[in-house]
Design brief:
Shape: globular
Number of strands: 11
Strand content: 5-15%
Oligomer: single chain
Radius of gyration: 20 Å
Number of helices: 15
Helix content: 40-55%
Strand order of the largest sheet: 1-10-9-8-11-3-2
Structural class: alpha/beta
Largest sheet: 7 strands, mixed
Order of helices and strands: EHEHEHHEHEHEHEHHEHEHHEHHEH
């Protein structure tokens, strides 16, 4: 399973035949349709990549602009916030955002969350839509530009005195102390309902991409490549693709410095790791979500890490093809290229394969690793 000295590549042949069931709540799609500026995001065909790698088609699900935000996260954050606030104020699902806003303001609700970027900004956007406060905790190493974007949504941003996992613990403590609502996209024992609502919210993107691939090809994806932070998006993808009438293989990708899923898969149990700096900041997570793990351990066909330089190179390649992605989204292209060249059989790639890459974020500032690599970091 380990294919060279520097890269550990996990393969699970049993995932090929593993199946699950999915019951997507039809209210989720209806809810998203009512949000300001909702529209499906584009599916972009990367014909030159398909030719290069010897597969039939490669598509990118381009989430660089979703409801005015540069990532898919609003799909999960909006549904989970809606469900949680509706329950707190004693209303019922189906209530309008306007009526919910009035009740939430009257109840003086504050939303709490931890983030390494886009999830926190999405929670802050929902707080702004409802006219309530948001308190967002970020890892100490998160860049200033990202912090400012979150604050620009009206949230109070606090730098935790540690990494992402530390920020999650701090947000949880503050929410409990203040009597607020924690809207966190990673689950842990005793906190699993709201993270599941977030995963459920991502189903809108999964339904879109399957419809778009079918419209373009008359068929379905053979392989989906998904970036992994805590694993909530991957959980949604596995449930979607492994419950489909014609299932697809799943390739998970992580930064080399934060490959918590891959390490857990190798160990056969959830394994927390310490993480360092990465340009793939949205994936800089050291612990797999507790509700994602049982799904990912059975339904992930392969798991790989990519380097900073590989992710950066993929950002530039996508830009040339008209897709403006950040490093987390481009990591999927980097992973596909590595697997297609070194072990295509591991994920069933062949000349007839249709591949979908989930590009999860838009362009953002980061340090060029080809420059950083040649100088010492301060």
């Amino acid at each position: 399973m380990s294919h060279n000295h520097t890269r550990r590549f996990y393969v699970n042949p049993a995932a090929r035949s593993w199946r699950c069931t999915s019951t997507v709540d039809p209210r989720i799609g209806d809810f998203h349709q009512r949000l300001p500026s909702f529209a499906p995001t584009p599916l972009v065909s990367l014909d030159s990549v398909a030719t290069e790698l010897g597969v039939k088609r490669v598509f990118v699900k381009d989430e660089s602009s979703r409801m005015g935000l540069p990532a898919f996260k609003i799909l999960g954050a909006s549904w989970a916030t809606y469900r949680a606030v509706v329950r707190t104020v004693g209303l019922t699902i189906g209530v309008s955002l306007e009526d919910l806003s009035v009740a939430a303001q009257k109840a003086r609700i504050t939303l709490f969350t931890a983030t390494d970027g886009n999830h926190g900004r999405a929670v802050a956007r929902m707080a702004k839509l409802l006219g309530i406060k948001a308190s967002v905790f970020v890892p100490l190493c998160l860049d200033r530009a990202t912090r400012d974007l979150i604050a620009g949504e009206g949230a109070q941003v606090t730098a935790a005195k540690g990494d992402y996992d530390f920020a999650v613990r701090q947000a949880r403590t503050e929410a409990e102390t203040a009597g607020g609502i924690l809207i966190q996209d990673t689950a842990f024992p005793g906190y699993e309902e709201i993270p599941q609502w977030i995963v459920d919210g991502y189903s809108t993107m999964m339904s879109e991409v399957t419809e778009q691939v079918f419209a373009a090809t008359g068929s379905f994806a053979d392989l989906a490549v998904v970036p992994v932070g805590v694993g909530s998006l991957a959980q949604s993808a596995v449930i979607h693709y492994k419950s489909a009438p014609r299932p697809s293989a799943l390739l998970a990708v992580e930064p080399e410095s934060a490959a918590c899923l891959r390490e857990s898969l190798f160990n056969g149990a959830p394994t927390a790791i310490s993480t360092g700096y990465t340009i793939m900041s949205g994936m800089n997570c050291g612990t797999v979500s507790s509700i994602a793990w049982p799904v990912l351990v059975k339904g992930t066909d392969a798991s790989i890490s990519v380097s900073e330089v590989e992710a950066h190179d993929a950002v530039q390649r996508l830009r040339l093809m008209g897709v403006n992605s950040g490093p987390c989204g481009a990591a999927t292209l980097a992973a596909l290229r590595v697997v297609a060249r070194n072990d295509p059989e591991a994920v069933g790639l062949n000349a007839n394969s249709i591949v979908v890459l989930f590009c999860t974020e838009g362009v953002r500032e980061y340090d060029d690793p080809t420059v950083v690599a040649t100088s010492s970091r301060e």
